[in-house]
Structure formats: structure tokens, C-alpha cells
């Protein structure tokens, strides 16, 4: 099954970073999520209850960053992947988390976290 639900360019302001000055500010992160989901059932029923509701997943990501202040992008990715899989029963998650403009002369830094099956 190669069906997916996508959330691209999710912008969130978060307290995140290793250095003292980063603990005092909010920084913009940009996330892309690729979520394994069998879209045949909602495709036939036309019911959001059968779908992986991307609005609900987006709200979960925003709420997590409101409640947590990780140091590393990796820590955010690991926790979010586990939370999304657990809460929504998603079999596989690919998360890209970008921190734009943090390094001079570099457009984006970021991490990719893949957990579960995206086969
Ligand atoms: N692999 C990572 N490297 C770094 C991270 C990170 O989250 N993952 N973070 C930082 C600092 O917080 C950076 O954003 C500012 O220099 C450094 N390296």
C-alpha cells in the first residue's frame, strides 16, 4: 500500500535550540509530514471519519510544540513521530523538520525522521 496523506510547509513557532540565547526566543520551523494511510475507505465513503484527518494531525503538532521545548530537531522529530503513530494509528511516518536561516549562508538546516513502515 503506497497511499499517503501529506502535510507540507507546516510553519510553527517554537522554543528550540541548544544555546542559551535560543531558549529565550521563538524560532520558526517548517515541517513536511508524509503519513502512510490506506485512502481506499475514505475514497469510497467520502467520510472524514474514515480518513486520516490532516487538520487533526496539524493541530497535534502545534500543540506539541506549545507544550515542549526541545533542544534538538531530532528530539522533536522522534517525539512527534511516536505521538502521531500512537494517537492516529498511522503505520509509518516520514517527518522533515527544517530550521530556516539559522546559519549564515545556508537556506535550511534540518532532519529527516522515518519511523514505522512506509513500504
Ligand atoms: N543535528 C543537529 N545539529 C544541531 C542542532 C540540531 O537540532 N540538530 N541544533 C543546533 C543549534 O540549536 C542551532 O540551531 C544553532 O546553531 C546546532 N546543531
Rg calc: 15 Å
* Termini gap: 7 Å
Q: Could you name the ranges where pLDDT drops below 50 across 5 or more consecutive residues?
A: none
- CATH architecture tag: 2-Layer Sandwich
Bound molecules: the ligand Nc1nc2c(c(=O)[nH]1)N=C([C@H](O)[C@@H](O)CO)CN2
Task: Report on this structure.
Catalyzes the conversion of 7,8-dihydroneopterin to 6-hydroxymethyl-7,8-dihydropterin. Residues 5-115 form the Dihydroneopterin aldolase/epimerase domain. Pathway: Cofactor biosynthesis; tetrahydrofolate biosynthesis; 2-amino-4-hydroxy-6-hydroxymethyl-7,8-dihydropteridine diphosphate from 7,8-dihydroneopterin triphosphate: step 3/4. This protein has 119 residues and is an alpha+beta fold. The chain contains three helices and four strands; from the N terminus they run ββαααββ. Strands 1-2-3-4 form a four-stranded antiparallel sheet, with helices on one face. The mean pLDDT is 97. The protein binds the ligand Nc1nc2c(c(=O)[nH]1)N=C([C@H](O)[C@@H](O)CO)CN2. Residues 17-19, 22, 72-74, 99, 102 line the site of the ligand Nc1nc2c(c(=O)[nH]1)N=C([C@H](O)[C@@H](O)CO)CN2. The ligand Nc1nc2c(c(=O)[nH]1)N=C([C@H](O)[C@@H](O)CO)CN2 binds next to α3.
Amino acid at each position: 500500500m503506497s497511499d499517503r496523506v501529506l502535510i507540507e510547509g507546516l510553519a510553527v513557532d517554537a522554543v528550540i535550540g541548544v544555546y542559551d540565547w535560543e531558549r529565550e526566543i521563538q524560532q520558526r520551523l517548517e515541517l513536511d509530514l508524509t503519513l502512510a494511510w490506506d485512502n481506499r475507505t475514505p475514497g469510497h465513503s467520502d467520510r472524514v471519519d474514515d480518513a486520516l484527518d490532516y487538520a487533526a494531525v496539524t493541530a497535534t503538532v502545534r500543540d506539541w510544540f506549545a507544550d515542549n521545548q526541545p533542544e534538538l530537531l531530532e528530539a522533536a522529530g522522534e517525539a512527534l513521530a511516536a505521538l502521531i503513530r500512537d494517537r492516529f494509528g498511522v503505520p509509518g511516518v516520514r517527518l522533515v523538520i527544517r530550521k530556516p536561516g539559522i546559519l549564515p549562508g545556508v537556506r535550511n538546516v534540518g532532519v529527516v525522521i522515518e519511523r514505522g513502515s512506509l513500504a
